[in-house]
Specification:
Number of domains: 2
Structural class: mainly alpha
Number of helices: 16
Strand content: under 5%
CATH superfamily of the largest domain: MetI-like
CATH topology of the largest domain: MetI-like fold
Largest sheet: none
Distance between the termini: 40 Å
Helix content: over 70%
Length: 378
């Protein structure tokens, strides 16, 4: 035991487990639990997992073995705690939340150990970089589920992830129709038109000084316009179908692309420009061979910003008039019916779609700007 070096997460988790031992049981027992003593058994099992994980983590075993034990202990504890409650929401006692905090500390330690592991292969290293954020996301859902079910929070206020997942699984056709209407029609159309128009106008503003001086202040002003005021006007102009939502997306994505592209075109150094002039390069040659490559990180930054703005703009615009389909329509309708799980299902699908959209743009950025120091250093 002299070589044992317990991390502070493991030490604190062990202390919490000791506190939980004095606060047993972890759930309010009914007649069946009192007769069979299941609640006490589950509690001691969870406490034992904490101490075993803390001891193994402090020993001299390799990081892979420590990560495996921490993974099994943290997730095994959560499984025991949630299975103890079952479908009896709101019966958790204080020891339940103490052990939940201990499990979270073990998961924190697990993420720390995984972050310190380095692999020689590029594929394995990439998988590890994806595993740590996936672990963070999973534990957000785990804590959400445990707190809602343990404390008995009414589902109408905050449904647990399990209820939201069940609603998603049972509403696939409705969600698919909403995604097609909002994302594949309004968002993508408005995103392409808005970004392309902003890019072209930025090239013109860079070429002609009066356009740059006239458009940039207007761009800053339009960027501050509230979408809740623009959306009804676009609905009046372009109708209730997806075209009006695409128009809102165009407005929201045009000026971020304009401002970022103009700033990027000015990012190339004076020495590089002087070199191009010594080669008697024309404006178009300087633009394509020097200034646009230098502006590429700025352009992709605008594309990533617009990937989230476009989705927000389309969903909010659907609150002000739309056919009986669409993510914004579904959210506004179902919240009026108090179907909160369906509202959260739409929010989850929108968040997933926005993350995928952002990820695709980020991957495209890495492929196009592989030469940039920010990408090579990553």
């Amino acid at each position: 035991m002299s070589g044992l070096r317990v991390s502070w997460q493991g030490a604190l988790a062990s202390c919490l487990a000791l506190v939980a031992a004095f606060l047993l049981p972890i759930a309010s027992p009914d007649a069946a639990f009192a007769a069979h003593g299941v609640s006490m058994f589950v509690a001691f099992m969870a406490i034992g997992l904490v101490w075993i994980a803390a001891i193994v983590d402090g020993s001299r075993v390799g990081p892979a073995a420590r990560a495996a034990v921490l993974f099994l202990a943290a997730h095994g504890m959560v499984w025991l705690l949630l299975s103890e409650i079952g479908d009896r929401n709101g019966v958790a006692r204080s020891s339940f939340f103490v052990l939940l905090a201990a499990a979270w500390l073990l998961a924190w330690r697990l993420a720390t150990v995984l972050s310190s592991i380095r692999f020689a292969g590029r594929t394995a290293d990439t998988m590890m970089r994806l595993l740590v954020p996936a672990l963070f996301g999973a534990w957000i859902l785990i804590i959400w589920e445990a707190v809602v079910r343990g404390a008995g929070i009414p589902f109408i206020l905050l449904p647990p992830p399990s209820a939201i997942g069940a609603r998603i699984a049972g509403s696939v056709p409705i969600l698919a129709a909403d995604v097609y209407q909002t994302i594949f029609k309004a968002v993508l159309t408005g995103y392409v038109l808005g970004c392309a128009a902003g890019f072209v106008v930025a090239i013109l503003a860079d070429r002609f000084l009066f356009l740059r001086r006239g458009l940039m202040p207007i761009g800053n002003m339009v960027s501050a316009l509230p979408i809740i005021g623009v959306a009804p006007i676009m609905v009046m102009w372009f109708g209730f179908d997806w075209q009006s939502k695409a128009a809102v997306v165009v407005i929201m994505t045009f000026f971020p692309m304009l401002v970022n592209t103009v700033a990027g075109l000015a990012a190339s150094g004076h020495m590089e420009r002087d070199l191009m002039r010594t080669y008697a390069s024309s404006y178009s040659q300087t633009l394509t061979k020097l200034r646009l490559p230098a502006a590429a990180p700025f352009i992709f930054n605008a594309l990533k910003i617009n990937s989230t703005l476009a989705l927000i703009g389309a969903i909010v615009a659907e609150f002000f008039g739309t056919p009986i389909v669409g993510m914004g329509f579904r959210i506004s309708t179902e919240i009026g019916r108090m179907n909160v799980d369906m509202v959260w299902a739409e929010i989850a699908v929108a968040a997933l779609a926005g993350s995928v959209f952002y990820g695709v743009v980020a991957l495209l950025e890495r492929a196009v700007t592989f030469w940039h120091p920010s990408i090579r250093g990553g």
